[in-house]
Amino acid sequence: MTVCAPPELDRLYDYLGAGAHFVPLPRLGDPATVTALRNACIGADVVHAHGLQASVRAALALSAPSGGAPFCGGPSGGGRTPLVTTWHSRNHLDGARGGVQRLLERRTVRAASVVLGTSSELVDRARRRGARDARLAPVTVPAARGPVCLHDGKARAELGAVDRPLLMAVGALERGRGYRTLLDAARLWRDLDPQPLLVIAGEGRERAALQRRITAEGLAVRLIGRRDDVAELLAAADVAVLPSRREARSLLAQEALRLGVPLVATAVGGVPELVGDAAELVPYGDAEALAFAVRGLLEDAERRMDLAAAGRVQAGTWPTEDETVAHVLSVYDELAGR
After folding, report:
1. How many C-beta atoms surround the C-beta of residue 154 within 10 A?
2. Within 10 Å of residue 181's Cβ, how many Cβ atoms?
3. Are 254 and 314 in contact, with CB atoms under 8 Å apart?
4. CA distance 303 to 279
5. Hey, CA dihedral for 169, 174, 176, 181, is it positive or negative?
6. Helix (H, G, I), strand (E, B), or coil: what is residue 242?
7. How would you classify residue 207: left for phi > 0, otherwise alpha for psi between -120 and 50, otherwise beta?
8. Range 153-315: architecture per CATH
9. I need a surface site. Which of 46, 117, 196, 269 has the fewest CB within 10 A?
10. What is the chain's alpha carbon radius of gyration, rounded to the nearest angstrom?
């Protein structure tokens, strides 16, 4: 197997250590990326691209280098290498940028032999864009290695939540993640005694603006940046919070349910399908509903215990890591056999 990706991803995921041949790609937007992909794809039985940008470049690389317009979006054929593309999430872009995104989605799904979506919503979206073969392919985050201690006292002490409830949110500090609404909610539960501490792990362009507001309004919120021990911190929380505008198979939701941490999440994208009845769901952007759901859980220990148990049961319904791999390999075998 050959993996084509930016060099920093090999340092993160160790493709070489896993036995793959690794081809480092130039930075995003560099025209040389398509050429590098085209050379790497020579002789391939199947090419699999993850995400829209990777799919655009893979489709370009697999287009005929001469004769006819490349990346026309027509069905693959004439001996071309089959292209599989996986949609892991979706962006909500408005105006001209949204129009460009829709155009790229249409062209990539029509160039693909199979489109895999990690949620039913994404599968339906691919079909609306013209995919000839779109299938559900849920991806489950591998379980944490080794034991994870729930309500770990050391973690709570580090975060400053020894004698108060601890709320945990995780994700990039970017627009669309719902953190402004989450701060609105934090203002609404300030009258609780003791007042809960909200900890947000992640980095992004919104950090400075969020921190200014936290300081100005005196909110009990801590931004702790990127962390390598998210599972341990999450396990120490009383409630996990997912306020995003868009999610397919949220990593935070999967970790929380698997650990038995009660979850309050927005009913967007693939979240309802992922969590079933094992979480409290609220509308996106509704700070009052979010604050009410969190307050209700903090005041009802029995409900928290019920959600913790339901979360572990729901997590048991998700495909295992081996099942996820086997499913994708079966698609490869099918296309290579054609």
Report:
1. 10
2. 23
3. no
4. 10
5. positive
6. strand
7. alpha
8. 3-Layer(aba) Sandwich (3.40)
9. 46
10. 22
Q: Is the N-terminal amide bond of 196 cis, ω within 30° of 0? A: no
Distance CA 328, CA 123 (A): 15
More confident residue, 302 or 13: 302
Q: Which residue has the tokens 């309802």?
A: 272
- Cα 175 to Cα 179, 203, 323, distances in angstroms: 8, 12, 34
266, containing H or E segment = strand 263-266
Say how many C-beta atoms besides its own lie within 10 A of residue 233's C-beta: 20
Q: Which CATH class is domain 31-139+320-337?
A: alpha beta
Per-domain residue ranges for the chain?
31-139+320-337, 153-315
Separation of first and last alpha carbons in the chain: 19
DSSP H stretches of helix in the chain: 7-13, 32-40, 52-62, 95-111, 120-128, 153-159, 179-188, 207-217, 230-235, 251-259, 271-275, 287-298, 301-315, 321-337
Q: Which two tokens stand for residue 147?
A: 């034991």
H/E element, 22: strand 21-24
Amino acid at 115: V
Residue 100: how many CA atoms within 13 Å on its side-chain side?
Answer: 6
Q: Which two tokens mark 210?
A: 């969020």
Give the C-alpha separation, 128 to 324, whole Å: 25
CB 227 within 8 A of CB 201: yes
Q: How far apart are CA 57 and CA 45, in angstroms?
A: 18
Structure tokens at 276: 């079933």
User: Mean pLDDT for the chain?
Assistant: 90
* pLDDT tops 60 at residue 76: no
pTM assigned to the model: 0.85
